[in-house]
């Protein structure tokens, strides 16, 4: 059963399944006994949970594992579902692999297929210097390439799953390609290259767990954030391949300005057509994923209050 279906059931309903432990903390109740305070999630919903009178062994199990098989009872607090955990068990490696997709922890597309698409886009770049730059970043630099293809696109807001960064990057690049095909005033190679490198700093910004899911920010991620880290990585690659200064300057500006304005994290606003387009295409990919996820958490014909989007999202009944 998906967690999003819980609201269809009455108090006391027994819930059994493999779920992600998004947050776990041992606390002390008023009676002096320890309990586990959890946030349980899958790709449809996240639900608060309590594990009362938790033993030391069970606490360690929850602290050390991001995925567990749970037995719990459904309860409601102010009309919102919550779970009382009865027991937690470690799934087999096979069960974990099979559960990654249903738990919203894996990209919808196969990672190898996405890597092939990335390679094809890089090959299509006509400007030799830009093509060499992208090969240096996404192919020659093997440690980075391995991390990039499985890294999440965020800790929580959008594309926050294994392979999410690559999926988001390709969505932006594919939209850029489509727009270039409709408008010959765009520097295709600059926009495509900018689409591919705009979020490379997230590999160093986001800290991941053993599965590859984002669990927070690294020290340099907190202090510098991905735009600054991406600039540093791009500068190094530009020097490595000897990219023409004007091309490097244009790409750096695209990275710096892709959030659009200072209050969203960009120190400068877009001053190039390609930088302006990158900003909107990046936001388009993020909002598409966010709306799809938040609408999926509502019943057909109903609304879901989204903290991320700061509004209610409607799920049409015509599906």
In brief:
With 319 residues, the protein is of the alpha+beta class.
What this model shows, in words?
With 319 residues, this protein is an alpha+beta fold. The protein folds into two domains: 97 residues, OB fold (Dihydrolipoamide Acetyltransferase, E2P), CATH 2.40.50; 184 residues, Hypothetical protein af1432, CATH 1.10.3210. Helices cover 45% and strands 21% of the residues. The protein contains eleven helices and nine strands. It has a five-stranded mixed beta barrel. The chain has a two-stranded antiparallel ribbon with strand order 6-7. The longest helix has 24 residues. The radius of gyration is 22 Å and the shape is elongated.
What is the N-to-C order of secondary-structure elements (H for helix, E for strand)? EEEHEEHHHHHHHEEHHHEE
Looking across the biggest beta sheet, what order are the strands in? Answer: 1-2-3-5-4
User: Considering DSSP H and I runs of 4 or more, what fraction of the residues is helical?
Assistant: 40-55%
Return the average pLDDT rounded to an integer.
92
| CATH architectural designation of the largest domain | Orthogonal Bundle
CATH class of the largest domain: Mainly Alpha
How many beta-strand segments?
9
The radius of gyration is 22 Å
CA-CA gap between termini: 20 Å
Low-confidence stretches: none
Q: Strand fraction band?
A: 15-25%
- Summed up, the domain count is 2
